[in-house]
UniProtKB/TrEMBL annotation:
Coiled coil segments of this chain: none
Record-level GO BP terms: lysine biosynthetic process via diaminopimelate; positive regulation of gene expression
Protein name stated in the entry: LysR family transcriptional regulator
GO molecular function (one): DNA-binding transcription factor activity
Keyword Ribonucleoprotein in annotation: no
Amino acid sequence: MLNLRQMEVLRAIMSQGGVTAAAKMLNVSQPSVSEVLRHAEQRLGFPLFHRANGRLRPTKAAQQLSIGINRVFEEVVSVNQLAQELRQQQRNVLRIGGVSALAMALGPTLVAEFLKVSPHASLRLSVMKRAEMAQDLATGALDVGLTFLAEEYPCLEAVEVACRPLQCVVPVGHALDRPGLVTLRDVAGFPLIGYSPHLTTSQLIRHAFTEAALPYRPFCEVEQVLQAWSLVQSGAGICLIEPFSSLGGFFPGAKALPLDHPARVPLQMLVLRSARRSGLLEGFIAHARLLLQSNPPCL
């Protein structure tokens, strides 16, 4: 039926409203566009446009076809994007994704430290949602994803690089800003900033309070740990965070303190299970593990 070139011409005519404008858009001559359209209609056996008052108006059949044609070209764009990603991969580019504050706080540190030992490597760091990151890893558009308490995916492997306890973020000078560890009972005595119930961090914190037989009553729930830090710095309350999203450098009026609680949070790097890992990827994972194991929890 229609080949890709004919679909391209039909799409251009539909979007531009005429042969002349379509030819200009495609950077070809008007007669060549008319010829492609004529052959397309011959192959289909029905007209695609009504010709009236010097303009082409798409038939109902053409409008129906355009829906499928647009989907085809969306796939073409996706294929080209993947080809570009693969070309970059061949050029020694490591594509890194990270959830929320991990990509904002820990991610840049890991990248900067890795470049000290691999100065010729090229890295790209993106902030992503968990589902988006898993999808990009599965399709090969991403090499590694920074996350914690990762969900299980059949095609992905979660490589643990560190494991640490939760932290409590308080305003500088707060009653809990003192030597020693903060307990969950201490936390329960102050206004608490929580997270939306569907978030992994929220589920972990709720479980910790339940296990300790303590009431969990956040006065405010947020979507991002960045919001929680901002509220703490403003003096609104305190919050608990997973231990790898310390944003103290952005919020000098707030401080992350270690929490005395048995729960440990693993920092994981998601990779494609079946893929052979490049030397660049293996080096990044190994260096991150070494860096996190040899540095204090504030890193």
